[in-house]
Amino acid sequence: MRTISATQFKQHCLQILEDVDPEGIIITKGGRPVARLMPIDDGKTSAHLIGVLERQIHITGDIMSTGDRVGC
Questions:
Q1: Global pTM exceeds 0.70
Q2: Helix, strand, coil % over all residues of the chain, rounded to 5
Q3: Distances from the Cα of 67 to the Cαs of 57, 58, 59, in angstroms?
């Protein structure tokens, strides 16, 4: 993850905002991390997760049941 000082951020903030990558940027003050700049998740970035667990999860039983047997 990229790290920049608060002074650098202040001087170049508009350019930094345009170039922020998905990992984000750590902003430091006096060499100490004070903030993390992250891009907003617009919902499009999670599309790659659809189908990731195909053939890795096996459903057994009634998926609509809570498993509670009260009243049986």
A1: no
A2: 25, 20, 55
A3: 19, 17, 14
**Six-digit token string for 2:** 């990229």
pLDDT digits (tens, 9 = 90+) for 18-43: 989 989 999 999 999 999 999 887 66
Residue 28 phi, psi (nearest 5): -115, 155
DSSP state of 44: S
Q: Percent of the chain, pLDDT > 70?
A: 86
Amino acid letter, residue 7: T
Burial class (CB in 10 A: 0-12, 13-18, 19+), 64: exposed
Answer yes or no: are the C-beta atoms of 25 and 36 closer than 8 Å: yes
